Amino acid sequence: MSTPRIKTILVTGGAGFIGGNFIRMFLDRHRDVEVVNLDKLTYAGNLESLRDVEKNSLYHFYRGDIADEAFVRRLFNEWHFDAVVNFAAESHVDRSILGPSAFIDTNVRGTMALLEVSREFGVERFLQVSTDEVYGSLGPTGKFTESTHISPNSPYSASKASADMLARAWWKTFGVPTLVTRCSNNYGPFQFPEKFIPLMIANALRDKKLPIYGDGMNVRDWIYVEDHCDAVDVVLYKGKVGEIYNIGGGNEVANIEMARLILSKLDKPESLLEFVKDRPGHDRRYAMDSSRIETELGWKATRSFKEGIDLTINWYLKNQDWWQRIISGEYQDYYKLQYEER
After folding, report:
1. Which of 71, 179, 263, 283 is the most exposed place for a label (fewest CB within 10 A)?
2. pTM of the full predicted structure?
3. Residue 115 belongs to a domain
């Protein structure tokens, strides 16, 4: 299939961490494309992360729910999108254990609504942004490939796997030109401070305990958020319709080692570490094989982990007002849960 001609694009969940970074990058890279950001503005959505693009004439924001099919259809009728990139998702594993329904509503029903309306309006590309968590847990060796059996272990990952399967079904049954990307753990600027790295930074800076699940030896493959956004853009324009692309940073780090590294860089004592009860169904290790996207599409992560973590820590040091408002403001109750490793 030829490269799509995209003049209007719908980015769902664009007020979130990854979606916001993607919009910022996309507007800078594609200066003739109208970008519509649809976000429900739940607790993790923050328009402050997009203040620098608000005056861009190509950027437009709508508040709404992707599961509201009638609303989504009205939006499509107004804009006639050429492409959809679906970042919108409930994404916290602990919250999915406490209340799975919201995850089914957004991640499954919401994705289906987007697919249905995309089918009606004949979009050229529908990119479903997924996660390595759909694969389940790895042993001490090996990596997830695109052919790895789906084996989700939490309501969150099950809902994301379901959305991936819907995308495949809408391609096979209705011909909707879908693509799926599955990425490893993201980190970088504007990440909501319930997530692992910003929580460790925020707690260390306030001399508060850094909670570590279980023995702390759960391993995650980390990727700087700008590298992920670049990969999504590459797949959108160059990916083969109906296919899945793994995106990884190639940086496997155990949680306890990540926490120690952050404490060291902030010159804080390891006595701040606190081991807490492990979460149910806690996956032991993730690692992504990104050879397909590298070989077929020429993409590879460019930020080294050392560079990325330094940039991230420096950003949180320079923007303490941003995360302090979240921790102490109207969403402080959300922040009280243990961290999310994403």
Report:
1. 71
2. 0.93
3. yes
